[in-house]
Amino acid sequence: MKLQFRMLSLAVLAALPALPALAHAQASDDTAALDQVLVTATRTPIALQDSIAPAQVIDRAQIESSQATSLQELLAGRAGINLTNSGGLGKQSSLFLRGTNSSHTVVLVDGMRINSADLGLAMYQDLPLAQIERVEIVRGPQSSLYGADAIGGVIQIFTRRNQGEFAPHFQLGGGSNGLREASGGIGGSGEHGWFGADIAYQHTDGINACRGSATLFTGCFADEPDRDGYRNLSKSLRGGYTFNDQWSVEGSALRAEGENHYDGYYNYSETLQQVMSGKVRYTPSERLVFTASVGRSDNESDNYGDFGVFGSAQTHRDNASLQADIGLAEGQLLSTGVDWSEDNLDGSSAGYLVDSRRNTGVFVQYQGRFGRHQLQVSARNDDNAQFGNHATGSLGWAMDLGHGLRVNASYGTAFKAPTFSDLYDPWSGVPTLDPEKSKSANLGLSQHGQGWHWGVDVYETRIDDLITYDAATFMMQQVEKARIRGAELTAGVVVAGFDINGQLSYTDPRNRTAGSAQFDNWLPRRAQQTARLDVDRRFGDFRTGLTVQGAGKRYDDASNAVKVGGYGTLDLRAEYALTPSWSLLARAANVFDRRYETVAWFNQPGREYQLSVRYQPK
Questions:
Q1: Fewer Cβ atoms within 10 A, N terminus or C terminus of the chain?
Q2: Cα–Cα distance, 584 to 576 (Å, whole number)
């Protein structure tokens, strides 16, 4: 496995700065990439290459060309991302950004936070790719802009947008393990407004999610060698209208209903994830913009065992914010605002002692340019109804060195309040847990040229009172000191018509609590190395591509007694344009049929095939 991962790393490194000399006559493609807009890193629109925080944008064209079947597949192996999955498509997935906990990443859908109010996790497996227009990933602490939980970073998902004349689109497909997919919608824009509606369905018979063990407290508590299927039905509506040069409104709604089969102490669950948002923008002058937004996110689940309902939870979060962006002078922007949220557990079989919490955050941010220098400073105070006031801040600086070369440095603090489950779960909760606090520093160097780019970032994060689960006591615990060091290497080049993009990450997440029996152990379920290589090439109406991605070994528990081996996989894809509007797509995933796990005992799919047809007017 070490040899396989080294070969994967070498393949990624092959896409690095030695390639610029080979790039040629691809300036238009590169210009399109450089023109990508990023909103999440500053809460204001900026060019992606101007972000001081390490960031990445995945747009709709990239989503479609990847032929990924899930959001987890799309994100796997990207810079700073460690992913785990418990048994295939639709099963519980966790994302560890820059080695932090899976609940240390704020996940937004159209600006609304969707991390569940009880567990603090985002249900990535239930967010259908067919409904997503773009994904923005910002790595590093962002609590000074987004409040609690943003220790590792922020991922924002934007639902589909519709431009041009009103037209329908749809896609039908199927594949291995009884996969059936269908999605479609209609949308477009006029002189003042835009509107769209979509529906998507995904169904798989699944694989045997857990290799099973009937031994008490081992594996998934059961030996059930059967297929564990998954079904997802999602719908979305969105639209916007510009009344004049000063006033505009927009809104969106996404609803995803899932049915999932498992192995273990419960066998079946029904889930609902729903998010609604609305926004009003008022621009009284060229230098002043007010934005008000409101929204709500809901997470519901009912879990069934052999004797009926085993457990249930219904949570929702109401959000509201007001932001003012003030242009002080050319290249000088001041942003300030207030965010309000209320979390509620409407119903839970767990019967938590506390079932609601309010938070009010006030923030201010300054962005400025001074010749070759760029500065970003932000500060925030969050007043949490349960844990009081927490102040966070960040400072970022970048400098243009010429010839497309740029250096950046940043420092930030962040915090996370314990979730309801951390505190009050009757089986594992500890009501005396304290909020987690972190300090992070990042140093980066990047360069953009005609048809190529590369970047490297190194960072360190120190977390006090890190909340983890102790498998030995079956209770939540706090790690007094944790330290995460890492480096990320990204690169892309267009050469001889081949679009090559590589990403390589190293993360060293450690328990650094002096005197602890777990001192210097790896934090659980995080691999030290991850990598991804994407290669695509168009030959007239035919396009082909491959993705190689993998991860090194990891440990499944805090004591580092259960090792999960590393892996590497190869996916191949092809697309043929039958007409300007009709395309035929084919894909083979895990071509070499590698058997591997990302969570101990839980299987991952072997070799799979997929065939689809897509109608999308140009």
A1: C
A2: 5
